[in-house]
Amino acid sequence: MKWDVNKKENGKLIPTTLDVRMIDTVELNQVYIFISEQRNALPRKEFFAKETEEEMLRPFIEGGVILGMFDEKKLVGTRYFTFPKPDTHPLAKLLKLTMEEQKGLAYLKSTVIHPDYRGNKLQYRSYQWLMEYAYTMGYDRYITTIHPENNYSLKNMFDAGFEIRELQRLYNSEEFPNGVWRFILYMDIAKEKDKYVENQWLSPEDIEGALRLLNEGFVGNGYENGKIRWCK
Ligand SMILES: CC(C)(COP(=O)(O)OP(=O)(O)OC[C@H]1O[C@@H](n2cnc3c(N)ncnc32)[C@H](O)[C@@H]1OP(=O)(O)O)[C@@H](O)C(=O)NCCC(=O)NCCS
Fold it and tell me: Which pLDDT does position 163 carry in this prediction?
């Protein structure tokens, strides 16, 4: 595929065309280096879990897909997703998905876009591609996690139709021994959307408030003026 984008260069936007295709096994080391470098450059490290090469790539080797976005030969974006076997994925267990629901489940592991290429909606566009690809293979339910203050990611996933269903501390590591907060977002494209009658708005940092609303049966599904919309 070819995707037209604008690249930031010396303070200007330069039109360019990305070559977008699935990553091959021989390119995995390049993917690991790209994701790790972008992760290390993030001002908020808790937005993106640090992984060793083995941890990062194992799900790919077990049947995952990585969409790579290349400018000339340079990797500038990745969209990584997997198809977990039913009853094996901890997030599916947290959401108490039935075995039937888990059969068609794709896990959206990560999206990383090089800063010079951000602002082209590549997270959203790569999701649209993923959804069509996964759907033709029988996957119509999607699960992912996002840090509550990762507003760029949250906006994109709300635009795609995802809803926040849970909030938990996940991914314990040496760097973050108590884990990091993550919204767990879910979407079932075959299911008719619920009709909501009640709305509340909370700041992303309001963890207590979000936990309370989730407990009361609210889901998060929108972002405006720096606040998350919660509906019931
Ligand atoms: C989340 C991410 C993939 C979104 O990239 P994207 O698809 O290019 O973002 P969008 O096109 O929706 O960007 C919308 C706006 O937010 C800005 N923006 C996006 N991500 C930004 C970031 N991390 N920091 C500052 N501004 C950012 C864009 O420049 C754009 O601004 P504009 O409208 O003035 O041009 C990207 O920010 C990223 O790679 N972040 C680091 C990794 C990460 O957090 N991944 C998600 C969890 S797996």
Answer: 96
